[in-house]
Amino acid sequence: MAVLMLASNAAGQVAMPSGIVHRIIHESLATTSGDPLVVDEDRAIVFDHPGGLPQVVPAAEVLAIVVGPVAERDVDAVVRTAARRAGDDVEITSPFLEFIDGQRLPGSLHAGGDGRPVWRSAWVRDLPFELDRIRSVRLEEGAPVVRSDEADVVVLANGDQLRGLVEDVGLDVVVEVDDGGDGDPRRISVPIHRVASISLVNPLEPAVGAMTWLRGGHRIGSASVRVEDDGYVRLVRPTLGGDLSEIPAEFLLATTPHAERIVALAMTPVEVGPGSAAGVRPWIPPIETDAGHHPFDAAPLRLDGPLRATFTLPSGTERVALTLERPGDAGDGRYVVVLADGDREVERRVLDVDDPVASVVIPIESGRLVVEIEDGGDGPFGDVLLLREAIVVRSGN
What we know:
- Helix content is 3%, strand content 47%.
- The chain is mostly beta strands.
- Strands 1, 2, 3, 7, 18, 19, 20, 21 and 22 form a 9-stranded mixed sheet that branches.
- The radius of gyration is 23 Å and the shape is globular.
């Protein structure tokens, strides 16, 4: 089992405040917030203000640690600037290497010691191309990455595509393609500098153990994680190889010792229906997902009510934690949000100008989370709901 080890290097030394709130998410999904954050093997500590009262959470109760606020209206200029500089507020367009367990490394292509290409990133060792572990790689800035369930897809620099079986990624990319006739498949060799992206059909597998989300789009697994008072996050025995990866703490977005237990609600299947708006609205807008890079990959979801959204959750789901937010630019108005475990109503919240944000935890037994937006009495229009940091928490068994 991965262990989240958060330690102070110097006895009695207190980390300097960062100016950004740190949130410790408990196993109960309660949250303890503060700045700065100091922890050791047995406990995590945040302060209610610099030099203020400590709030202690035993390490065994830590499900995850997140940097920054949840609600959009609480995001200040410091957080916005950091996100913009790192490109976290838009869809990632830079070159990256992504693995079948969800790890992702922005970086670039370089020549290895044997002359074959390797992937170089800021935080881990140079990586050779092990095709059975790779989901996709973008080699050219902004190039499309084409997902396919039937064949590997190689997108060339001129926009052409090759579909088939990628056999090798070296100085040349070798692809076995079927010409559509009765003959044997052909092998096509393309110099790697003419390749824009590659997507492979390797089966995905769940992440297990510690996972850390970093600014710029990095997701890196490791045996354990330390966040220390010298301004560094240390990934112990990264899954991709090496003994230690040292990362400035300013790049940290989130980390958990239990990646297998946290699933972003944005990654689950959802069906949208009219709910109480049946007969009122001729068309129900689809749910929109914010672009960008987010802790746990939990992209904010926008629902334009009235409507009913039914999310099908993964096996082993125990609870869902999420923050409901009425956007600051929504103007006057009110609506009711009903949350249900399948057919059983669990929570009902009114969001309006005076109370625009609510954080809730929903126990789940049915495998379905239902979110319904009901008209609050001022007309069935403009009822916009944002689901922020919505995560599904699975059992620890």
